[in-house]
Each structure stands twice: as structure tokens, then as C-alpha cells.
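lol so apparently i was supposed to do this last week
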Amino acid sequence: MSTIYDCSVIELPRIHSLSGNITPVYGGEHVPFDIARVYYLYDVPGGETRGGHAHKNLQQLIVAASGSFDVLLDDGINRKVVNLNRPYYGLYLPRLIWREILNFSSGGICLVLASEVYDEADYYRTYDEFVRDARALRGKV
Ligand code: TYD
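anyway here it is w/ thymidine-5'-diphosphate bound
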């Protein structure tokens, strides 16, 4: 399977007990950025796809806090799909990665830790515009 530029699955800490588990996440320690914002996607109807954009500067860690879903990653050159299905794994996305989030299980919750507050100007909403800048950054034309 192809490697997508600098994306990686990070194993997060697990504090296990018979009454349930805890996963703490610290910015700058478990993720390579300071956490400025947390948001989560939930009540996603079956068959729906979220995402469909990239970011100019934002870095993120995507976690399946409940249930499962697939994340399609595209760095402008290669594509791959990562399935997330455990709350103690996070998928790290650097800047300039096109992503689509799909195949949500019933009750699936997509938790996102983000390096910046929301800023619409940070989005690539058009795939062609993203590919042009991603290939320029990564040395392919
Ligand atoms: P968007 O990031 O496009 O959602 P997704 O990637 O899940 O498909 O955001 C959808 C809408 O929600 C858009 O109008 C912007 C708004 N929004 C905020 O206001 N704040 C946020 O932190 C996020 C993530 C989205």
C-alpha cells in the first residue's frame, strides 16, 4: 500500500480498569502540535461522506471515539484508505492532505483534535486547487 506524505497512525495511552478505560491526550506530547480546538462528528446517516477538503496550515488527529469509519487520504500524489475502529488510535494528518471520511458505523463518533481554531480561509474546498499546491510543495508537477 502506498505511503501518504507524513500521515501516521499514533497509538495513544490507555489507562485500563475493570470499570472502563481512559485515554488522555496532551498537545505537544501525544500529538505533534498544541491543541487549539476539539470537535466531533456524530449522528452521521449511513452512506454519508464527510470531509472532502484539505487544509493549508491545520494539523489534526482523527480518532474513532465510538464505532468505526474509513478515512480516505490523498497527498496530491498517492491515495489510501485507513480504517479507524478503536478509541486509542489516532490518525495524524499534517497540512495539505485531502481527506474524505466515510463508511460510518451506526453510532460512530469522529473526534478531531485540531492545531488551529476554525478558519474557512484555511480550507481547500476544490480538489484541483489542492492538488496544484500539494504537488508544488512535495516536488511533483
Ligand atoms: P466542514 O469542516 O466542511 O465539515 P466536514 O469536514 O465534517 O464535512 O464544516 C461543516 C460546517 O461546519 C461548515 O459550515 C463550517 C462549520 N464548522 C464550524 O463552524 N466550526 C468548526 O470547528 C468546524 C469543524 C466546522
